[in-house]
Amino acid sequence: MGLEKKFSGFVSVRGAREHNLKNVSLEIPRDALVVFTGVSGSGKSSLAFGTLYAEAQRRYLESVSPYARRLFNQMAIPEVDEIEGLPPAVALQQQRGAASTRSSVGSVTTLSNLLRMLYSRAGEYPAGQAIIYAESFSPNTPEGACPECHGLGRVYEVTEKTMVPDDTLTIREKAIAAWPSAWQGQNQRDILTTMGIDIDTPWKDLPKKDRDWILFTEEQPVVPVYSGYSHEEIQRFIKNKRQPDYMGTFTGARRYVRHTFANTQSALMKKRVSQYMISSECPLCHGKRLRQESLAIKFAGYDIADISRLALNKLAIIFSPYASGEAQALKKMATNHPEKVVVAKRIAEDFLARLQVVLDLGLGYLTIERSTPTLSPGELQRLRLATQVRSNLFGVVYVLDEPSAGLHPADTEALLRALDKLKASGNSIFVVEHEIDVIRHADWIIDVGPAAGEKGGHILYSGLPEGLREVTASLTRHYIYDDTTKHKNDPRQPTEWLKLEGVIRNNLSGLNVAFPLGVLTSVTGVSGSGKSTLVSQVLVELVADQLGLQIDISDETGADPLEKTEVTTLGGQIVDGMKGIKRLVVVDQKPIGRTPRSNLATYTGLFDHVRKLFATTPLAKSRKYDAGQFSFNVAKGRCPHCEGEGMVMVELLFLPSVYTPCPTCGGTRYNPKTLEVKYKDKNIAEVLGLTVDEAVNFFDEEPVISRALDVVREVGLGYLRLGQPATELSGGEAQRIKLATELQRAQHGQTLYVLDEPTTGLHPSDVERLMLQLNRLVDAGNTIILVEHDMHVIASSDWVIDIGPGAGDDGGKIVAADIPMNIAKAKHSRTAPYLAKHL
Ligand code: ADP
Ligand code: ADP
Ligand code: ZN
Ligand code: ZN
Prior knowledge:
Elements: H1 3-6, E1 10-16, E2 24-29, E3 33-37, H2 44-62, H3 66-76, E4 80-84, E5 89-92, H4 105-109, H5 111-122, E6 154-157, H6 160-163, H7 183-194, H8 208-216, E7 222-225, H9 231-239, E8 246-249, H10 253-263, H11 267-274, E9 278-281, H12 292-295, E10 298-299, E11 302-303, H13 304-307, H14 312-324, H15 328-336, H16 338-360, H17 377-389, E12 397-401, H18 409-424, E13 428-432, H19 436-440, E14 444-449, E15 458-463, H20 475-481, E16 496-505, E17 508-517, E18 520-524, H21 531-546, H22 564-567, E19 571-576, E20 583-587, H23 600-604, H24 606-615, H25 618-622, E21 647-652, E22 655-661, H26 672-675, H27 684-688, H28 692-698, H29 703-714, H30 731-744, E23 751-756, H31 764-779, E24 783-787, H32 791-795, E25 799-804, E26 813-818, H33 820-823, H34 832-836
Parallel strand pairs: 3-13, 3-14, 5-12, 12-13, 18-24, 18-25, 20-23, 23-24
Antiparallel strand pairs: 1-2, 1-4, 6-9, 7-8, 10-11, 14-15, 16-17, 16-19, 21-22, 25-26
Helix pairs in contact: 2-3, 5-16, 10-11, 14-16, 15-16, 17-18, 28-29, 29-30
């Protein structure tokens, strides 16, 4: 076939059976761009990540400590007979569930290190200041951190006013709001009674000396506690040496707040105590986080904090004259410090080269300082990719998960160039993708299917792209080779317009915009143009505010709760159209839960019905088991060891902690007694192990349950197991579960649905099913506003709002707002040429 000539070698897989894979064997070329296609749930990830990447990882771990190996082996030995010719692998997967650690664009790309070196070695120092080391330019080191705020950039104050919001209350009436509310708080009040403080005097009437001590002392006296007695009685008990109830340790309120804030593992606790802290910009460094000596050093006229706040494409402009040696400043440097010129030029060249890849991937609108939790998963994946392109590794397999997510077709072209570069340096690229343009660019296509879950797991095709044309069983083939889908050109008429004026946030400055109600609108534009800012942030917040809802936008970003108040500063208001909206539903890609405790069945409410059903079985009745017995969140019926999680977390030194199946219940989550109860021959754990598709048949006599299951199936999730932990779900799957939960509800109309790229993770055939569901919601009198890149979806929308024209400061304007037919002809719209091809 001549394939041996075309490719340098092959990875040979024999007998892969991971998840739903049907004992498949195949050959995959190395040093090529290989795209894995197929409907959602068909087994693409099980092959690319679960088998190939997992095996490469396992082999790598063979070379590390036996301890780490043992833990990983439980997790990740793929079900496969043999893999030959597999190079080491690097996975660039999008985050699933788990919170990302806090870092910045600069640290992910290593641009920060380079910048620090530059400032240290080639910066302009004030006369007489000695050279300082690169670490002194990092706020995370003792050498660099501002001494006032310890490198945080903000100072946190805990005051009497914040801790005691109502000073007319007594201590017994919980004047000290900052103290814990339950038993611990009672404990503190008892201790104060022993110490002779009157807890029935209004706070404001207590002596200032006592108030200050209670709130601000760092002392932690230990005193005898006799609950429920007066100070006088207690004095007597102590004199008579009566045994106290216990010895209590006092903790001042401020100490409690600070200690909890710094040490708690619970986001909720952290949030609770953060209410009692006021944060303000550090008066010494003004939020720049560095000590003054470090900030005194300049390059190109900027201190390192200021330069880290410039967009990367601006940095490219600043650095290029240094790299080429033409900068005026270099000439000056040559007379005073000739040794610095070479260093400045070298570092600038390196910096620029690394930067260029980031710019090529369409991320020039980011800043060095931007924290990673505020990036979308797609942006983060592309940043990591950019870092890899510059890493000069070769002979590696990169395994990527839908790198086109969040990308406008114009950005996708840049992505493909970056992948080509990685390939050209001698690497293999394995990509799980749905985007037709990426699939068309492949050297080799592996189509998995034909359907999802049990009905998938076969290799329908593995070969050169042209060959897929002949494979009639492939759903992918249809979309690549004979896509004749025609879109309706009779858009619905809006019932009303929701008008926003003077919107200011991120790159939007004073924007006016009108969203049609009663129709489906797509908001389009290149990555970084301002779509999410407008839709997911501003629109959602303003509407929520008008409806009197509390929407916690930044809750899941892992951001410091204290910083939240700052990001919401925005200008803008709704000037018309609110009477057409009674409800707001945001269907986003945030996880439905962060522990294995939440799953599809619990989130959709389905599990309540299932548990009730189990409670009605004869055995359950004879044992007086109620529905709570079958909950893994209640002590009665669950496994005592893992407390119903089915998994136990294992902390690993230097590596992310991992979940492994609970050794006591073997992952079933329940105690043996509970598992004796069966409904139609299955116990509750076995029911949680059913896929949605299987469960539809199993519960066919239970209309409420099977109807709920039907909806989940209609959004393309029939392959998921009922008990599949939230931690195993992708962002797209989580989003579709939310959508299904919503579709189950009775429809009253007048609801505004906001969705951010709902097609992520969806095969074109799944996209069609999704559109069917969304159109049903619109037909029932609701409004849908999508942020979207998929041209099929955009073409079949009723209205399109195109934002741009570029990213960051080059975007943030309404380029065009019209029906799709007219958008396709709009001048200056980067969306227009791509849309035109689909109409
Ligand atoms: P795709 O990548 O094509 O969307 P996957 O490989 O993720 O599909 O899933 C294939 C099948 O394997 C599905 O039925 C899915 O529910 C199942 N599956 C995926 N992850 C797991 C897991 N961690 N444990 C058990 N089954 C899984
Ligand atoms: P899109 O959704 O079109 O990709 P975004 O709305 O995410 O674009 O971004 C628009 C601009 O706002 C970009 O310059 C981006 O860097 C900036 N931006 C977005 N979110 C934040 C944030 N949390 N903090 C600072 N800048 C942000
Ligand atoms: Zn400071
Ligand atoms: Zn257990």
